[in-house]
Write a structure and sequence with these properties.
Number of domains: 1
Number of strands: 0
Mean pLDDT: 88
Distance between the termini: 25 Å
Largest sheet: none
Helix content: over 70%
Low-confidence stretches: none
Structural class: mainly alpha
Number of helices: 2
């Protein structure tokens, strides 16, 4: 796997992973916790706790178009080089 495909894969992971983590946190907060585990009230995340997943998501969204454009440019360059060799 070359670096351009790796860049696209990392961008997709940066988009999907925060969404999964936030959904899991939301689901876990709504599970009943009584007794020694908790007092039954959901513990919602604060803004400082949400900043890393939000930034990761935004970096994935911002870099995905760049990764796709660079991948296409690399494909065109490889295609042109193979035509010049013939």
């Amino acid at each position: 796997m070359n670096r351009f495909v790796f860049h696209i894969v990392v961008c997709v992971v940066c988009i999907i992973l925060p969404v999964i983590l936030v959904l899991y946190n939301y689901w876990d907060n709504h599970q009943p916790k009584i007794g020694a585990v908790g007092d039954g009230r959901p513990n919602y995340p604060s803004l400082p706790q949400l900043i890393p997943p939000i930034l990761c998501f935004l970096m994935g969204i911002g870099n995905l178009p760049v990764a796709i454009v660079r991948y296409k440019q690399n494909k065109m360059t490889q295609h042109n080089e193979s035509e010049n060799e013939d």
